[in-house]
Amino acid sequence: MVHELAEYERAPQECHLTEEQLHQALFGGAPALFGHVAVDARDEPVGFALWFLSFSTWAGVHGIHLEDLYVRPAARRTGAGRLLLATLAAICVQRGYRRLEWHMLDWNPAAEFYRAVGAEPIPQWVPYRLDGNALAALAGQAPDPSRTPAGPHRPRADRDAATRLAAGGDERG
Question: How far apart are CA 102 and CA 51, in angstroms?
């Protein structure tokens, strides 16, 4: 269905996801992607929601970022999309998450559906993406990873060094 979504979004050539990659992302050793599948009365999949955790530094709590919501055309207006969103909203409420957010193409007719469930666009916030050559170029400016401990639990001295570097007046950003 992910490839069906790519077709719908007029970008099939950009979707390279394999079944193995999706399985590893959802069920591997440390999954960071979560998903739900809507099925019909015959137990056939008709839609899916793929999401991951976000974090609001202002609210101090996690939220859900909905990466993709897709319902097959034949199953639209059956309640499948609403059920998927309601499931994610329930997870947010049960876990104390404050937000359920997503991005949408500006031409997507699902905007009416999203408004119908109470969602609103976020004015003044523009999504940005860094990928391809620009991503590689910026990554080339990072400190040598062989000299920096991996993971979020670096020793305090390394955190202080990173803070000094950031506060050291590097005019480029």
Answer: 9
